[in-house]
Design brief:
With 173 residues, this protein is mostly beta strands. It has 2 helices and 12 strands; from the N terminus they run H-E-E-E-E-E-E-E-E-E-E-E-E-H. Strands 1, 6, 8, 9, 11 and 12 form a 6-stranded mixed β-sheet that branches. A 4-stranded antiparallel β-sheet has the order 5-2-7-10. The protein is globular. The N and C termini lie far apart (48 Å).
C-alpha cells in the first residue's frame, strides 16, 4: 500500500478526540455478567437512573465494534489531567432511537477527580437497549467536549473475538 493511501485510510478510522489534556486510556468490552451496584438518580437517562460503576479493571476485549449481546458491557477508561480544576462533568451517550419514546441522547453527571483514571460503561441489560448502529460516548464540561469515542454496535454474536473469549470458554451444562 502506498504511504499516502495508508494515511488516508487512517483518517477514515474512528478515533477518539480529546481536549484540555484528557486522555482516553482504553476502550473495550467486558464479557456478559449480571449487573450490580446501587441505582443512582440520573434524570437525563431513559430509566431515570444509572448503576454505580464497578471498580476499574482491564477490558476482556479491546475495540469499538460492539456486539449487542445480552449483559455485555462496553466502555471507556480515561485520565483526568492533574491540573484540571472542574469537579463535575456530564457523561453523554448518543445512539439510535431506543425504547417507547425513541430516546437518542442520554446524560448523567459525573464527578471528576484530577490526576485520576476513571471509567464509564454501558451494559445491555434490557432487550430494548440492544439497538444496532453508531453510538457515541463523550464527556462534557461546561458545554465543551473533553473527549468523544464512537462505537459501532452490531447484532449479538457478530464479534468473533468476543464469541471466543466470552462464550466459547464458558462451561456447558
Amino acid at each position: 500500500m502506498r504511504p499516502l493511501n495508508f494515511c488516508l485510510l487512517l483518517l477514515c478510522l474512528p478515533m477518539p478526540s480529546f481536549a484540555a489534556g484528557f486522555e482516553v486510556v482504553a476502550v473495550g468490552m467486558h464479557c456478559p455478567e449480571e449487573p450490580e451496584g446501587a441505582r443512582m438518580e440520573a434524570p437525563g437517562t431513559e430509566l431515570g437512573w444509572i448503576r454505580e460503576g464497578r471498580p476499574l479493571r482491564p477490558y476482556d476485549v479491546l475495540g469499538t465494534d460492539i456486539p449487542a449481546d445480552h449483559l455485555l458491557s462496553f466502555g471507556i477508561t480515561f485520565a483526568v489531567p492533574e491540573e484540571f480544576e472542574v469537579s463535575q462533568g456530564v457523561m453523554v451517550l448518543e445512539h439510535p432511537p431506543m425504547g417507547v419514546a425513541g430516546v437518542t441522547r442520554q446524560t448523567h453527571s459525573v464527578d471528576l477527580v484530577p490526576g485520576q483514571i476513571q471509567g464509564t460503561s454501558w451494559i445491555f441489560e434490557f432487550d430494548y437497549e440492544r439497538v444496532h448502529g453508531t453510538w457515541t460516548r463523550s464527556l462534557e464540561v461546561d458545554g465543551e467536549t473533553m473527549w468523544s469515542v464512537t462505537f459501532q454496535v452490531g447484532p449479538p454474536g457478530s464479534h468473533p473475538l468476543v464469541n471466543e473469549i466470552c462464550f466459547d470458554a464458558m462451561p456447558m451444562s
